[in-house]
Specification:
Strand content: under 5%
Shape: rod-shaped
Number of strands: 2
Largest sheet: 2 strands, antiparallel
Helix content: over 70%
Distance between the termini: 50 Å
Radius of gyration: 31 Å
Length: 334
Amino acid sequence: MASDLLSSLVIGSPTWSLANSLAIISLVLAGIALGLGRAFSSRKLWAWGAEELGQAVINVALLAALIGLAGAASLMVSETLPAQMYVSCASGMPADAHAALNLTSCALSNASNISQRAGAALLSQSYKLGLLSSLSMNLNVVSAQPYQALAWPAKTYSEWAQGLGGMEALIEADRQFLAMMANMGFMLFLPAGLLLRLFFLTRKLGGVLMGGAIAFYLVYPLALATLMLYGPLEPAGAGALSALDANERALAVLPSSLDWDQPGVISAMMKSLDGQDLAANSAGVYGPMASLQGALMLYAVVYPLIALIVSLAAGAGLAGALGAELRLDLMEMA
């Protein structure tokens, strides 16, 4: 995978072709400035040419360093997990995406799938519990609603499903952001940064673009992958889905549809529920669902926020370094 990245960034790629052309132009201009500085005995012009020559050499070296960083990021993940664990599910990522991008995409997709399964089960059981809670029996002069207490878990399940949908949307937004950076963001901002960095008037802006491209292509997914690698989602998801399955089995005696015109259909259904501790099964979902919601909150909000802060700090540091002048103080040299 590092070799694919090497090929995409160096051999015949638009990024490398542009950087190569600009580097040649900058070398020529720097050489002209050096020659004119010597010819006219202008230390200022000669010093400026020397500064620009150094910057051109640095620009060429930056791509090689970037390739090494991407290869190191892939190696760190590859050494931790087998490749088949984070490549087969990384839909939307380009073929040359590094391992940290693929692993993060897979982790987010897995979190979204768990949220979908739990949300679907919650909606189904909310309907069934709500149906039961609304049923009433009339025995001569006495009327009763034996399952009225189930109205509360029915409402709670519906609210949980709605909350899971919101977290799922945040997770999908983060996954789409990673895919955007992998597919076009890096290849858009890095060449633009290289172009702007070659000219002293726009060098700082070029450093900002390059620093941002590197931070969100390498640092952000690597930070997310590190956080999610040992996250609590898998055990929390397994516990919540197991509790929902147990509750579903207790409600499985309910018919898929009710013929309300058929005499005795309600009493027959209630009789079939005899012995099913619906309240206990419904309450048994609360603890596991709290764990799942907490884990999804980490994946949807907390982990991306931490990774964003780390990436912004790294990007700011890179922007300052990449946009800085060499400051060789050549004007002071004899």
